[in-house]
Design a protein that fits this description.
The complex is a heterodimer. Helices cover 34% and strands 28% of the residues of chain A. By secondary structure, chain A is an alpha/beta fold. Chain A has 2 domains: 168 residues, Rossmann fold, CATH 3.40.50; 73 residues, no CATH class. Chain A is globular, with a radius of gyration of 18 Å. The two termini of chain B are 24 Å apart. Classes of the chains: A alpha/beta, B mainly alpha. Chains A and B meet through helix 2 and strand 5 of A and helix 10 and helix 11 of B. Chain B: This is Iron ABC transporter permease. Chain B: Keywords: Cell membrane, Membrane, Transmembrane, Transmembrane helix, Transport.
Chain lengths: 246, 328
């Protein structure tokens, strides 16, 4: 079990943001976290990691000490911050901070090279990360999280701002990682891509999990109506379902 | 290690040697080295060991300290305009020194002034921790530092304003400009140990500073404890800046300009910048201190004046570069 949240409740300014959340995540799972803006997706991720104080409940990750947790779970926050004009290579190397070796050991070099290759950034290696486009920066930051080589990867809207081809490539990579034995928790707004690639979906609405199951079980019209206040229509294609808001 | 670091280290050592060879006594290089080890005749060993050596050591250490703390503050706040004076400790140290001059304490003993300044610095850091609290983010820290700086500045201005003695007022103004003239080995022993400890504390934060490149949330997820980092950094900066101000006065611009200039040289990594900015700070301050002695030896030109004169144009150059499409 990579992540286990039990009865987790989080309040911000005395307003409950997450209510009694129970969630487990295992290896080989690519779990898509869906829900409207403000439903509590980012809060769930940060509280699970122990970066936010919880009012009640437990998270196995929050109970670890900081460096042990950093070797178990990588986190890609929603805000894509890069403060200094460092090279792509140096930025990806930041993922090695939790590991001994200062980013220069052989295992570190291997992890950095693998992450850069997986995100197809070889040609950008020596370029200054800040001079890349927004979408390219996102890919560099994903590579940074992969270089951390953790069993669990938690990514907050990792494919937002990528072009359609890159979104697809990125979801494929996440699925590959899950097939290799990682566990991933990924918040996502593209329901079609979520349905195609995720092994399991979790639907959040007003701080509660209102559905947890296979994409087919979760993307039901009544649940969509409840979570997003909109009607949807599902069209089955050979590549998977398409979900159209109407 | 990149060749740029070796170049900086070589340059700093050269300037250290030149600093030892610069002065009104006119001692040749060979004589200077023998005198440094206590050999040679007449006043030479004393001149070398009691006057020039402490001056060169303080120039190196204070320059390095200011450069390194500047790099650390910029890395921590993720802002290229941050500088070591931002936490208010140097302002409070200056206030302590100014009070020592005004009350005449500095006339009683040569060490009364640095001790008063250290006391001021300690008061400043206590006030900072009281205001900013044990948790709190970097914004609270800057606001508290700015408030303390303003308070210390007002205190200094008040002392000058009410000073009945024009000589004391004159002395205060000159002291505030910063100088390394007539410092002794006692000053070195007073300042160096806390500065080394502070340097060690800041060196320990280097990976956390690197992690902050990705923002506070990502850094926390990489295992950086924000509270611990802030504590280490603030105490480290105070241990360097407090003693530096106590023995040399307020020297501006080094901590601001040096990290800025050297950032592209080390690929902008905050951890690599710590060492580079330390060496660069030593180069700038030793260079300024040598030029003070060469340009107008009889007029006692002040160090802070020179660093500002060098620093401001360099800063303008950077603004020019940013305007034409670069990035700070």
């Amino acid at each position: 079990m990579l992540m286990r949240l039990q009865n987790m409740t989080v309040s911000r300014r005395k307003r409950p943001v997450l209510n009694d959340v129970n969630l487990t995540l295992d290896r080989h799972e690519l779990v898509g976290l869906i829900g409207a803006n403000g439903a509590g997706k980012s809060t769930l991720m940060e509280a699970a990691l122990g970066l936010l104080p919880t009012a009640a409940g437990h998270s196995n990750l929050a109970q670890m000490n900081a460096s042990e947790r950093a070797r178990n779970a990588a986190y890609l926050p929603q805000s894509r911050e890069i403060a200094w004009p460092v090279s792509v290579e140096d930025l990806v190397a930041l993922g090695r901070i939790p590991w001994p070796g200062s980013g220069t050991a052989i295992s570190d070099r291997a992890a950095i090279d693998a992450a850069i290759a997986r995100m197809q950034l070889q040609t950008h290696r020596k370029r200054t990360a800040l001079r890349l486009s927004g979408g390219e920066q996102s890919r560099v930051l994903i590579a940074r999280a992969l270089a951390q080589e953790t069993p669990l990867v938690i990514a907050d809207e990792p494919i937002a701002g990528l072009d359609p081809a890159q979104q697809l490539a990125c979801m494929r990579i996440f699925r590959e990682l899950a097939d290799e034995g990682h566990g991933l928790l990924v918040s996502i707004h593209d329901l079609g891509l979520a349905a195609r690639f995720c092994t399991r979906l979790i639907l959040l609405s007003e701080g509660r999990i209102i559905a947890d199951g296979t994409p087919h079980e979760v993307l039901r019209d009544d649940l969509m109506q409840r979570a997003f206040k909109m009607r949807t229509q599902r069209i089955e294609t050979t590549h998977g379902p398409i979900i159209i808001p109407i | 290690m990149r060749p740029a670091i070796w170049l900086l280290a070589g340059l700093a050592l050269c300037l250290f040697a030149i600093s030892l060879l610069t002065g009104p006594a006119g001692i040749g290089p060979v004589q200077a080295i023998t005198a440094l080890f206590g050999l040679g005749e007449g006043p030479m060993p004393i001149v070398m060991r009691e006057i020039r050596l402490p001056r060169a050591i303080l120039g190196f250490a204070i320059g390095a300290g200011l450069g390194m703390t500047g790099a650390a503050m910029q890395g921590y706040l993720r802002n290229p305009l941050a500088e070591p004076g931002l936490i208010g400790v140097s302002g409070m140290a200056a206030l302590g020194a100014v009070l020592a001059i005004q009350t005449g304490l500095s006339q009683v003993s040569g060490l009364a002034l640095p001790f008063a300044a250290l006391l001021g610095a300690a008061g400043g850091i206590a006030l900072l921790f009281m205001l900013a609290g044990p948790r709190g983010g970097s914004i609270t820290l800057i606001l508290s530092g700015v408030a303390i700086s303003a308070l210390a500045g007002a205190g200094t201005a008040l002392v000058l304003n009410l000073s009945p003695n024009p000589y004391a007022a004159n002395e205060i103004v000159f002291w505030l400009m910063g100088s390394l003239a007539d410092r002794s080995m006692v000053h070195v022993w007073l300042a160096l140990p806390p500065m080394l400890l502070g340097g060690y504390m800041i060196w320990r934060t280097r990976r956390a500073l690197d992690a902050l490149t990705l923002g506070e949330a990502a850094a926390a997820a990489l295992g950086v404890s924000p509270e611990r980092l802030r504590y280490q950094l603030v105490v480290g900066v105070a241990l360097i800046v407090g003693p530096a101000t106590a023995v040399a006065g307020a020297i501006g611009f080094v901590g601001l300009v040096v990290p800025h200039i050297l950032r592209p040289l080390v690929g902008a990594r905050p951890s690599a910048l710590l060492l580079a900015a330390g060496l660069g700070g030593a180069i700038l301050l030793l260079g300024a201190d040598i030029s003070v002695r060469l340009i107008l030896p009889e007029r006692d030109l002040k160090l802070g004046v020179i660093t500002a004169l060098i620093g401001a144009p360099l800063f303008l150059h950077l603004i020019w570069k940013t305007r034409s499409g670069g990035r700070l």
